[in-house]
Write the structure tokens for this entry.
Amino acid sequence: MKKGILYVASLTFMVGAMLCLSGCNNDFEEYNQDPYAITETDLEADYRLVGEPFVNMIRNIYIHRPEWQLQLQQNLVGDVYSGYMMPPTPFAGNSNNMTYNLVDGWNTWIWNPAYNNVMSSALFVEQKAGDDFPEFIAWSKIVKVAAMHRLTDIFGPIIYTQFGNVEKDGTIGYDCQDVVYDNLFKDLNSAIAELDEFRANSAAEPFAQFDEVYGGDMTKWVQLANSLRLRLAMRVSKVDPARAQTEAEKAMNHPDGVITSNDGNFTVKNDVAHPLNTINSAWGDIRMGAPMQSILMGLNDPRIGTYFQVSERTGDYQGIRQGIEIEDKGDYVDFSTLQNLGDVQLMTAAEVYFLRAEGALWGWNNMGGTAQELYELGVTTSFEQHGLSGVSDYLADDTSTPAPYNDPQNNDNNVDTGSSYLSTITVAWEGDGNELERIITQKWIAMFPDGQEAWSEYRRTGFPVLFPVMVNNSGGEIDTEAQIKRIKYISGEYAQNPNGVQTGVSCLGGSDTGGTALWWDVD
């Protein structure tokens, strides 16, 4: 095999420039150096050579700028499929991702940034850090896992272990999803071990000037790594329950543990505004999803006011049902907008409590409480995150259930009382056999607005109960009732890495369609 950087559509300027620092001179190195230029030695002095790529990596787990790329990377995919949001805009004549006619040109912006900005930067750090800065390699592995588990949970098999390995014919092989997950766990293992060793022998904070999340606090990065391990353990809990339990208990048994308070939330600082603010307010291209209206209003959940604004049309909270017939943007643009958002939220203490609650439900060891105790801590922590009171009364509510949904624009989209698409779950822990639905429904509420993670958990568990599309333009590829399972591989991979993408398709266990379930989606 020939070693090289993975083909990508276009490397970022930053990574390209840094690669040039090490490779552009070649045989002219002795004669072609600018005596006033910044050298790698200069950059190593304050960690810049291996530290600068982290700004690019972290800001592309969930793209910050330009906003249209985030719209395609996540907003018109996971944010919609999770039930969180729905655009009022009938893109492409209303035959688009929302109505299951998957738009390849859109979905390219899910795939390419993960490789152009995250994997390329991580490989650069690995190559430049070498034996001198192993703590930066460890940090890059945590960031890489945070980004790439999202990608594999969208497409299934992806390029992971073979990134940087190009065969003579230009092929870059894919890993089956079970192999991807195995290596995600391995990367977390090595990253945590390396940071443990570094902290045991040094009080330095080399990450500080590049870290837009924790300000260089390595302990918080280790807690995030343990929390990610717990999240990934839960993801594989149905397909590989023994591995799931082992990984979850390993996360909980580590001396630093997992995220337990909101000051440890994985939120990326924004120097401007959250990208969803532009998509929501300036463009008018996203609105509240109908399931959010049904569940939050039905459960009398005060978080609704921190997430959404009331509709100009109805004077109350009004969401749009996914995958409906929309003729004109004006038909739905006056439904509930999102509240302005601040930092980009990628994992919270509340989510971690719900993960632990589910682990306790399955009888896993050392989750730190009973399923009920951890469930109630998850709700309480979410209320605290949003500065809300009244959590005791909310947790005691054993009568309120998700409300029927009415569409004032088109009654054909209504979901009436008694519909199988309307859950009867309550908030209060009742020991009625519905514990998993209760945990996942509350986790779904707490994770807003990260629709990608919410969509993954919906596919794994079937909860919360969501409304299927009214218009299905998939040509039979996606079952309306089962709902969308994944995004198809992009045309660029078929054109430029045809043999490689076929290794991914062969792992799917089905056709390369939006209706083929992922490896961990066995229920």
Q: What stands out?
A: The chain is about 45% helix and 5% strand.
